[in-house]
Every structure is written in C-alpha cells, then in structure tokens.
Amino acid sequence: MGSITPPGPAQLRRFRLRPGRRRPVIMAVLLAAFLATFLIDWAVTLPAVGATSAPTASASASTAPATGQPCTVSPTNGCIQGTITDSDRKSVEGVAVDVTGPGGFAQTATTSDTGRWSVSVTTAGSYTVAVDQDTLPKGQYLTNAADAKRTVSASLNANVGQIFQLSDQQGVVTNDDATSVTPQRAWQQFASGIRLGLLIALASVGLSLIYGTTGLSSFSHGEQVTLGGLLAYLFANQLGWNIWLTGVVVTLLCAATGYLQDAGIWRPLRRKRISLTQLMIVTIGLSIAAQYAFQYFFGASTVRIQQGNPETIRFAGVTLTVQSYVAMAIALVVLVATGLFLAKTRFGRATRAVSDNPALASASGIDVDRVIRFVWTLAAGLAGLSGVMLGLVLNGVNWQTGLQLLLLMFASVTLGGLGTAYGALVGSMIIGIVVELTNLVLPGDFKYATALVILILILLFRPQGIFGRAERIG
C-alpha cells in the first residue's frame, strides 16, 4: 500500500490564495463607489459655481416687482414663498404680497393661477411679509386678519414658506376655531393618512423582507429613502431630467446600492458568522455615515425635486396636489406587483420559504445567498422609489428625511408582523392613518410620537403583530 503524500508548499499556497481572488472584485467595487461619489460632488457643485457668475443681476432686481414665477435657491440667494387659497381650498390668483427687509429691500409678488408667490432674497436677515388685502377677491377675507403681516427669518440657500388661508367670513378667527375638529378636517386628514401609509409601505415592505430572510433589523434603511429623494433632486432639479425618467433611474441606482451592500458588506459578514447584534451595530454606523455624507454633498437645507408650483385637485371633498395622486397610484401599483411576485412566481415562493425557515429552504435546494441578495436589491429599490415619491409629495427632502420616517417604518413592520411583507403593508396603512388623524389634536410634527405609543402597545399586548405567529419553529 502506497503512502499518502502530504500537500507541498505550492499546493498550500494555491489553497490559501483562492479566497484572495475576490480582492480585485472588492477593489473594483470600492473604486466605483469613489468615482460615483466624485461625480455626484461635481454635479452638485457645478450649478453653484454657475450661479455665482451673475450676482449683480439678482441684486439689481431686488427692488423690482416680482411675478408668480418660482424661486430657486442657490448659495447666493434664498427664497421666501408660499400659497394663498380661498375658503374652498382653491388657488387664488392676483393677490399682492409685499416683502420688505434689510438694506431697503422691497418686492411685491403677485400670486399666479396656482396661488403661488415667491421672492428671491440675496441677504440673510429678518423680512416682513404682508398681504395687500385690497387685492383679495371680492367676498374673500383672511381667516386671521391680524396675521396679515408676518416677520420671517430668511437665509441663503434655503426656502422659507408662508401660507395664507382665506375665508368667506370677515373677521378674526381664533386659533381654537382654526384647529377645531370638524368632519371635513377629519376626512381630509384621513385621505392624507392613506397617502402617507402607501408611501411608507414602499419602504416598510423591503425592511420586513430583510428581517424575514436575515433576521437583521436594518437601521440604515431610512437612508435608502433619503438617497432616493436626493438623487431625484440631483437629476430632475440640477440636471434638468424628465421626472419620469428620473424616477426610473433613481430606483435602479438605489437597487444597485442594495446589491453592492450585500456583496461588499453583509454576505462577507454572514460568512464570518457575525452575530445579529453586531450586524445591527454596523447598520447604525452605516446610517450615521450616510447621513453626514448627504449633509456634506447636498447641504443641510431642504431641497425641492421640482421647482414648479404644484397644482391641487379637489376630489370627493379632499384637496391634494397632483403629485400626491400620482404618487399614491404609483405606490399602489408597485405594492400590488410586489405582492403578486411574492405569491405567484417561483422566486417569490423561494423568498417566502427562506423567510419562513432558511435552514429548511437550503436543505430543499434553494440558494439562500441568492435570495438574500435579491431581497437587499429589491428593498433598496423600493426605498429609493419611496424617497422620490415623498420628496414630491412633501415638496422637499433633506439629509434627515429617512431618519424622521424610520420610527414609522419600524412601527409599521412590528404592527403587521415581523418578516411578513403583507403585514408591513397593512401596518403601514394603519400607522399612516393614525398619525395623520392625530394631527387633528396634536400640533406639528409631534404627531409622529403616536407611532412610538403604538409600537409600545404592540410590544406589550401582541408582540408578534397582526399577521405574525406567537412563536417561530426551526
């Protein structure tokens, strides 16, 4: 019987070098990310350089009457703008708004056919905004006549919004009357809740799928929403792309970032058998890094994807912008298509199998890594599309947009049931409606605290959620 020859040094080196063959791929990915960062920085700073070439034109027009044309912010100017609507929430045209400020600044803006007015300012400081009540339509009055003149603080590269509401009754309306709960207000807020729920669901479905297939709660998922909104601003606003083309390209780019994340970060960490707690800490760090990267490249101010004045449509007693109706329709179509894909296709069933029991799915011949890679790609794409829609509906996006919505997304996923895509959809609708209805009694953004209350109650009384199971086997 012959003896077994041990492997020589050359063979050992060959075995050791096999894992190293992935290094060129990783280096290529990092190089592509660096080039993409450089191009984004160049594209964002290029319009600012062009804007500084004609400061005298802005200064010379500071005392000229302004029209209803939209104002675009830049490093050399800011915008004071707003809308005026009548008692039926319809746009009011031809109302004069006087803006005065430091250095003898004086402009008169006239509302356009969409009720919008805007003034460009080139000096930061305190400005006075006053509505010329003699130009109001016959039979229409300010809901609060004492609020006809306001003082605002404006800065460069930032928008300051002021909204004036008209009424068919003359006199001063108290704050209690303006904020009283009426059936009309409740119906309007209910419709706004449906809109918010659909847009949150786009991001929550992906977040739920990530948890279902990997067990990871990704705290960086909100930044995928922010990335979608800021990329839409870059392409549609700065580069002048068509908004439909922008939406498609941004969704694909965000999906590509999900693919690269799993290829460069999550799959290598899974193969190292890193615990879920450690992976969650990585997502927190990635979230913080992404936030400050957004602030570095795009600034801290809120930016608008479209500078045009949004038109409003009144339907079934509800007044929403055209962008809102379009965004709701797109979100509904995408969510239905995602549900059909998960329920009817072979790969969708494989995804649900991995979500239910990864070990059994792997033993059945399913490529678990391939399914997880697809889930990360799909989740990032849906979150990017959600960012585009939210930027259009909210008329602005900033570096913290995704962070502000992260609590709503986690509350939606927990309410519907961790790891279930359908549960995330139902949970998002409930959270969106409750949050908006809460605005009837709670002021401003304090309404978002409602999601925290709901989250605590869910964990106390039904931690598995609506569609979740009391325990998981396997």
Give the overall average pLDDT: 80
Q: Which secondary-structure class do the elements indicate?
A: alpha+beta
Task: Compute the number of helices.
Answer: 15
Alpha-carbon distance between the two ends: 47 Å
Apparent shape: elongated
Q: Would you kindly provide a brief summary of this structure?
A:
The protein has 474 residues and is of the alpha+beta class. It is built from 15 helices and 10 strands.
What would you note in describing this structure?
The protein has helices at 9-20, 23-51, 55-60, 175-178, 183-214, 221-238, 243-271, 276-298, 322-344, 346-356, 358-363, 368-393, 401-416, 421-438, 449-461; strands at residues 78-85, 96-101, 105-110, 116-121, 125-131, 141-142, 149-154, 159-167, 312-315, 318-321. Mean pLDDT is 80; it is low at 11-31, 37-68 and 172-178. The chain contains 15 helices and ten strands. The two termini are 47 Å apart. The radius of gyration is 26 Å and the shape is elongated. It has 474 residues and is α+β, with helices and mostly antiparallel strands. A four-stranded mixed sheet has the order 4-1-8-6, with no helix packed on it. It has a four-stranded antiparallel sheet with strand order 3-2-5-7, with no helix packed on it. It has a two-stranded antiparallel ribbon with strand order 9-10. Helix content is 56%, strand content 12%. The longest helix is centred in the middle third of the chain and has 32 residues, at 183-214.
